[in-house]
Write a structure and sequence with these properties.
The chain has 17 helices and 16 strands. α3 runs antiparallel to α4. β12 and β13 form a beta hairpin. The protein starts with a helix and ends with a helix. The relative contact order is 0.05.
């Protein structure tokens, strides 16, 4: 018993202390490699410091250890401080990142950094309170640092304000990474919210570093809260001679054709102001992807320009611009263009030279911009187009699928059946490039039919023959079958023509 007591109270040999420390440090290195390979957490420098400090400190827990008490305190302090960094790494991976990944979002950087700093401050408090509690030098240091801390606090009040604002931004729920904001007349996407500031990227891929306190104090528009759906507005000036009802209808339809503009809710147009040289209209439209902010404005303005020009609606110049406007070269003779285009219409063979001449005078040359719809499937129609320049695509929607059925170029006709019978459009025709076309309305051909009623017979026979060709019914099928169907179709088209033109 006495011998055992002597052994227990014997001082811890330095060589044995060293051997145990090396063994403990080796165990920590092994644990680090296993954790790194299985969890992917980069333990790095602080884990090695933690292992080394633990290897020095743990053997000193041997009872009655009285040697190197200052080293014992230092190794314990180093173990606690480095342990705080190691714990923050695990907390960042398995606390914040994993928690946010399960919710399909990205962990805010400032949140993990804040809690890491909190752990470090807590570890410093533990060291000062439980390890150096009886050290007069440390107590004096704390007293002096308290006064210095007060001064530093005043100097860093803006930084502290930004940190508090960062928590307000995140936990308030109104802002998150990926949101598009309007701040100081700049449209920018939130890339990251950190301790001091919110980093954002504009539509020009220019990065902004905005202090968090500025976001919480200033008026900021969030285009993604509470949902991505939001409305935008733009203005256009139109000449006083144009009917407001027509202008609003034309602008609304043109805005609705832009690719990124939602059909529901539909665009709305308001007469906003009677300005000095024009009437200002405002179009309100809806989108759900604000990253398309610039392209959607460009597409709408482009569509409005073409639509207003087709309807003879002028976007006026300021008066002084007119005074110095250069004389523009005269365009090609519109009459010659219309005559050449009209001879390519399939029903032109039924018309006399006089009829062609009359249509030449009344038909209009119109323009469509790339992406605009010349016709829309299912819509009512009483006009047709003959392409002069450009390319267009014929698209049919059936059973929820979109099918491209044809490509059209100069000389091709669009919508003859709607012009002659008033049938709804059977397909959507989209301009693949800027297109020029001759437009013939019901009002252009109605006077000709009224003056020449026998023209209806020729047109009905022509339409019947075209339908037979589309169905693959030819004289080869059988003369009796062919003639019977031709008479049936011709009679049907004749009734439609008479009803449509009220003859």
């Amino acid at each position: 018993m006495f011998a055992a007591a002597l052994v227990t109270q014997a001082p811890f040999p330095l060589t044995l202390h060293f051997a145990v420390s090396v063994l403990i440090f080796g165990i920590f290195l092994g644990i680090g490699r296993v954790l790194n390979s299985r969890t992917g957490v980069q333990l790095g420098f602080f884990f090695k410091v933690f292992g080394l400090a633990s290897a020095v400190y743990l053997p000193m827990l041997y009872p009655h250890y009285t040697q190197y008490i200052s080293m014992r305190h230092a190794s314990a302090a180093l173990m606690i401080l480095s342990g705080a960094f190691v714990l923050s790494n695990f907390l960042r991976r398995y606390g914040w990142e994993l928690w946010f990944e399960r919710r399909n979002s990205k962990a805010p950087k400032f949140l993990s950094e804040f809690f890491s700093a909190l752990l470090v401050l807590l570890s410093i408090g533990i060291v000062l309170r439980f390890i150096y509690k009886e050290d007069d030098g440390v107590r004096a240091l704390l007293t002096g640092s308290g006064i210095a801390g007060l001064a530093i606090g005043f100097a860093l009040q803006d930084l502290l304000g930004n940190i508090i604002a960062g928590f307000t931004i995140y936990f308030g729920g109104q802002f998150k990474a990926g949101d598009w904001l309007l701040i100081e007349n700049k449209h920018a996407e939130i890339m990251e919210i950190n301790w001091r500031s919110t980093r954002m990227r504009t539509t020009d891929h220019v990065y902004l570093d905005v202090p968090n306190s500025k976001i919480t104090k200033d008026m900021v528009t969030n285009f993604n809260f509470p949902t991505n759906l939001h409305a935008l507005r733009l203005e256009v000036g139109v000449h006083y001679d144009s009917s407001p009802t027509l202008v609003k209808e034309v602008i609304a339809k043109a805005a609705g054709m832009a690719p990124d503009v939602l059909k529901d809710p539909p665009p709305n147009v308001y007469l906003k102001e009677f300005a000095a040289y024009s009437i200002i209209y405002e179009v309100k439209f809806w989108i759900n992807d604000h990253s398309r902010f610039s392209p959607v404005h460009s597409d709408i303005r482009t569509n409005i320009w073409y639509a207003l020009k087709r309807h003879g609606i002028t976007i006026p110049y300021p008066i002084h611009t007119e005074l110095y406007a250069e004389e523009k070269p005269k365009p090609p003779n519109a009459t010659d263009i219309n005559r050449e285009a009209l001879t390519k219409a399939s029903f032109a063979e039924c018309l006399s030279a006089e009829h062609i001449a009359r249509l030449t005078q009344t038909a209009k040359t119109v323009q469509f911009g790339k992406g605009e719809h010349l016709t829309e499937q299912g819509n009512e129609g009483n006009s047709m187009y003959i392409l002069i320049r450009g390319m267009a695509e014929v698209i049919v929607f059936a059973n929820g699928t979109r099918s491209s059925v044809a490509k059209l170029g100069a000389g091709d006709c669009i919508g003859e059946m709607s012009l002659l019978t008033g049938e709804r459009r059977s397909a959507t025709v989209v301009a693949l490039t800027d297109c020029d076309a001759v437009k013939i309305d019901k009002n252009d051909i109605a006077p000709i039919i009224a003056d020449t009623p026998t023209l209806l017979d020729s047109l009905s026979n022509l339409l019947a023959q075209r339908k037979l060709q589309l169905e693959g019914v030819t004289a080869v099928t059988g003369e009796n079958v062919h003639d019977e169907k031709r008479r049936e179709y011709s009679a049907g088209f004749l009734r439609s023509l008479k009803r449509f033109f009220a003859v």
